[in-house]
Amino acid sequence: MRNWMLLALAATAGCVGVIGEPEGDSTGITTPESAALAEATLHRLTRPQIENAWRDLFGKPLAMPADLPADDVLYGFSSISAARSTISPVDAEKYEAATYHVLDQVFADPLRREALVGCPAAAVSDPCVESFVKAFATRAWRRPVAADEVAALLALGNKIAAELSDPVQGLKFLLAGVLQSPHFLFRVEVGEPSPDQYRYTGWEMASRLSFLLLDAPPDDELIAAAKSGALLTREGVRAHARRLLDDPRSRVALTRFFRDFMNIGGLDGLDKQPDKFPQITATLGVSMRIELERMFEENVFEREGDFRDLFTTRETYVNEDLARVYNIEGISGPDWVPIVLPDDGTRAGILTTPGFLALNAHKTQTSPTRRGRFIRLNLLCQDIPPPPPGVDTTLPEPDPTKPTTLRERLDQHRLDPACSGCHQKMDPIGFTLERYDSIGAYRDADENDLPIDSTSDIDGHAVDGPVDMAALIAALPEVGACVARRFYEHGGAHLAGGGEEANVEQVVAEFVGSNYTFKELVIALVTNDGYRYASPPAQDKEVTP
């Protein structure tokens, strides 16, 4: 009985995998050539977005299915992956099972079912049911539904009701059809023609705002604004974006951007060697991630401060897991405690947190190259070319009779002209962080008990250790520009091509003009033409499955 829906979904959704995945570095630094405005595209809802959409439609309590398709990451962001994803037959089966998992809960309780529909649903053909179906599909598909679409849904419900002699089951299968439709599983945002470009409709802008800022479907106020045309104006978009930023759900949605931006989702699977690091616990990686996320939330939502302060602040939150790494006594249990780190030159900001340091290190050893590479690529948006073909990238083996520091081995490695160009961009930054081991604990000597030199020269700037380096990075104009660019790409769910530079530069300028206030970066993005308009669709564009 259910298989017809699976087949319809698989046929409609397309091929398996990602469409036209560009070549280049997975960090997103290699950008494709593009028109001044990006093309409109379909966005598959992420797992949090689907779950929030179900809650919006059915209310609470609602137990979520465990086996929804996982969200992938492309060019650093799950949003970009979602804009290139299709639905495989296996994923279609998972969506089908998840849909009935949700509907079974709603339909198992006659009172809850009747409250949802607004009447007993004695027959699918009841005017009350027809009115409900139209309203439900409009909300689920986030756009007005046509009369023939409603008629097709009602015909399906009547057919199932007749076959099973049960109008309730007919309605249940009807709703399953709504929820397995590509119009629910994807954000269908294609725009409407205007001279030389496509303008996103009011309904599409409602979805673009709501899913960006809340990871959830549009609320009643956004729907009303979509109907009135208010979201076709920059002023209307700005007003509703500010309103949504006051919604507690915006913390979760925007923190998800920060999680992707800093790549800290990987901390949940932290893999270090327990016999080497006695501070290791089963929950340490998650605690590391949460610390960084709390620092972001504090900056953006509590202080509404300068984003660059994240690189220099000595204020953070720790629990017992992290207190052991920070070597702070008197903190026990899982509860989070606000602390101010001592002004002793050992730590300041997110680049000296255990989470950042552990993520950008090997299982047992540090990696100045990894740490420096992340900062160059992800925080400064500067390119680092891959090593030339055939070049041996392994470090020379240390002389067992003469212990050497990792810095000395890397200095030797950089003497090779084929290696020096890239490593000169990465290693000097990473050297300043050598006083932190593979889990981010502070040390004065390395594993060979040799003293650590954390001074460095970064692009002509003499730097005396990690705190000095963090202050230098915070002061570089590239940091603000990189954050703004990456948020532009996250929000638009595509890499910003060369033709989009005017739009990107406008967003950067407004971010800088706001004294780097992250909420104002959000406003700058959503009111930008690059977010409100799309280029006309390419004709005869080849799609690679």
Structure description:
This protein has 545 residues and is mainly α. Among the domains are: 1-16 and 87-186, no CATH class; 269-389 and 402-475, no CATH class. It has 24 helices and nine strands. The protein has helices at 3-13, 47-58, 78-82, 89-107, 110-117, 127-141, 147-164, 167-179, 182-185, 202-214, 220-228, 234-245, 249-262, 284-302, 320-326, 354-359, 368-379, 406-413, 417-431, 466-475, 477-492, 501-513, 518-526, 529-532; strands at residues 41-44, 186-189, 192-194, 197-199, 315-318, 337-340, 455-458, 461-464, 533-534. The strands form four sheets. Strands 3-4-9 form a three-stranded antiparallel β-sheet. It has a two-stranded antiparallel sheet with strand order 1-2. β7 and β8 (461-464) form a beta hairpin. α1 (3-13) crosses α4 and α21 (477-492) crosses α23. The protein is elongated. The two termini are 30 Å apart.
